Amino acid sequence: MSLSSRHLLGLQGVPKEDIQLILDTASTFREILERPIKRVPTLQGKTIVNLFYENSTRTRISFELAEKRLSADSVNFSIGQSSVSKGETLKDTIKNIEAMKVDIVVVRHSAAGVPNFLSRICSSNIINAGDGIHEHPTQALLDMYSIREKFGKLAGLKVCIVGDVAHSRVALSNIFGLKTIGAQVSVCGPSTMIPKFIEELGVNVIHNIDEAIQENDVLNVLRIQLERKAREYFPSIREYANYFGITSERLEKNGKDILILHPGPINRGVELSSEVADGLNQVILQQVTNGVAVRMAVLYLLGTLN
């Protein structure tokens, strides 16, 4: 079996069969990560460029490790040490990189639509590692994998995405992926952080966090992006934490053994209390581990298409 597209630009419109194939393939690679020697020769001879125009810790390291685990040749692009600082355009940058005969480009950029643009001008396979506030498909896939690992299924589960949904690429990819696979999706957060017409995507809107806990099996709690002026959308950090922060008291009050996800990095005491962030309900570090397996699966499936 193979993917229906030679790129992974987002999860909007991606067939259910493709998502299932990626998650099933990730299960195989997840087992490899538990071996003493965590490397297979699957993509030996392939060259992958990590083209990151935005800062990243988890996603970048996760892709780098995934590439090394598959025995690919991995090259990291650093914007500060590149000709971009001399005025070189994105198109010229990617054309010069492709002239060095690369096979896959993993791109992160602050502008929405950059991966789609590259897919139209490149012969390499393009993987979106996050574009602006548009999509972040591999994060959503690892979230879905982590949920399936816990419950054994995705279809029929109730998942609520909590926080700054309006400015989150993680939220949008999760909505597309979860809806495609058959989960029931809702969002919860301040009205200023919920897109006006989001219900047109087939999701429910909840404005009370206690109600969200009571009605759902999973909470995927988003990071409040303080570096992107998120504080302009609510009066204070303290008020946000009071109304939408997940605490152990809140979980106990609602009597729910609910699964907690978070894409990281966590603002402790804001989205999650330290007790919840380190507690038994969360699978945050498992998400990080699963991210390597999911990215191995995506790289493998795209890298063996040609």
Task: Report on this structure.
The chain is an alpha/beta fold. It has two domains: 16-136 and 291-303, Rossmann fold; 137-287, Rossmann fold. The protein has helices at 16-32, 58-69, 90-98, 114-121, 137-151, 169-181, 209-215, 237-244, 248-253, 274-277, 284-303; strands spanning 47-52, 73-78, 104-109, 125-131, 158-162, 184-188, 204-206, 218-221, 259-261. Strands 7-6-5-8-9 form a five-stranded parallel β-sheet.
In short:
With 306 residues, this protein is α/β, with parallel strands linked by helices. The chain has helices at residues 16-32, 58-69, 90-98, 114-121, 137-151, 169-181, 209-215, 237-244, 248-253, 274-277, 284-303, and strands spanning 47-52, 73-78, 104-109, 125-131, 158-162, 184-188, 204-206, 218-221, 259-261.
What's the topology here?
Elements: H1 16-32, E1 47-52, H2 58-69, E2 73-78, H3 90-98, E3 104-109, H4 114-121, E4 125-131, H5 137-151, E5 158-162, H6 169-181, E6 184-188, E7 204-206, H7 209-215, E8 218-221, H8 237-244, H9 248-253, E9 259-261, H10 274-277, H11 284-303
Parallel strand pairs: 1-2, 1-3, 3-4, 5-6, 5-8, 6-7, 8-9
